[in-house]
Amino acid sequence: DHLKQCDPLLMALAVVLIVPQIALRAFRWKQLLRLQGIRCTWSQVLTIYFASTFAGLVTPGRLGEFAKGIFLKQQGAATIGYSLPSVLVDRMLDLFVLMAVALMALLQIGSIPHAGTLGIVAIVLLPSAAYTGMRWLGASDRLAKVASRLKRRLGHNWSGSLDDFVQGSRQLISIKLCVALGLTILSYAIYFLQTLLIGGAIGLPLGYIQIASAVAAGILVGYIPITIAGLGTREAVLIFFFGRLSVPATAALSFAFLYNLVYIACVGLICAGFWLKLPGRQALKSTPAKSNGSDGH
Question: What angle do CA 125, 129, 132 make, to 5 degrees?
Fold first, then answer.
């Protein structure tokens, strides 16, 4: 009955917003690559990002998204070790925003005392603490010392990759990461607008923050690599949180079904097109700075 009353116009708007939402995240990654001195065109970054999103959809915990580093190496843009820091930061920015929004879900069901205050403090302090930690790790060759110990344990076969990782990490330690954080927030603002449209399509009696916080909690649980694309775990979380907001399980499951239709079926089809285009892409002509201490620009 819930699915029968689905508004096709609202669903169509949710689908249309897929491209700008993922494109913003791809642009964010391009800015991270630029900090590392890895030069590539917008179309190349867009293709790799959409293709890696497709790989993430078909792997547990969306681990396939880390294929971005492999794609860059295949196109001659950077080694996997050099590009891996940008891929890790790209994922960490997503996790930070999702955790901040998911705290609101805990506030709504009263699971944590003063969760609202804790959420505000976390949003303010975590970025500055993370940046301070990166500065401390990058200072006085601390990161290089850690890599040196790993090389002794792992052997010389990993030496080059670890050196590239250290150099690539140093390039990312910049206040310009605030721009990437801003792009992440904007991207997820669109993402949660899509979830609001999906909820509105079946008449879900919830607002933007309520739906966004429950979905954020579901996505975080879906990152645990036990199912493909978070299927099952995300639905359980949605039923739990929506239930605490007096939404029946049938409505929660209907929302989850339409959510999967947009974010798995439609996103998968769009990203699959980029995946099929990727092998034919012209190799990047430029190469990143080597691990020689230069800024790579």
Answer: 145
Q: What is the dihedral sign for C-alpha 200, 100, 260, 242?
A: negative
Segment of 38-42, 44-48, 173-177 carrying the highest mean pLDDT: 44-48
The whole-angstrom separation of Cα 144 and Cα 131 is 18
Q: What pLDDT, in 10s, does the model give residues 2-45?
A: 888 899 999 999 999 999 999 999 999 999 999 888 888 888 89
Residue 78: what are its φ and ψ, rounded to 5°? -165, 160
The model's pLDDT over 218-240, given as tens digits with 9 standing for 90+, comes to: 888 877 776 666 677 888 889 99
Task: Map 91-146 to HEC letters.
Answer: HHHHHHHHHHHHHHHHHHHCCCCCHHHHHHHHHHHHHHHHHHHHHHHHHHHHHHHH
Written as six digits, the tokens of 67 are 């294929």
What's the whole-number mean pLDDT along residues 70-81? Answer: 81
CB 35 within 8 A of CB 222: no
| Residue position matching structure tokens 């199912």 | 227
Cβ–Cβ < 8 Å for 174, 190: no
Contact residues for 130 (Cβ-Cβ < 8 A; gap 6+): 92, 96
- Whole-model pTM: value is 0.79
Q: Which of 195, 185, 214, 207 is nearest to 263 (CA)?
A: 195
Q: Give the CA radius of gyration of the chain.
A: 20
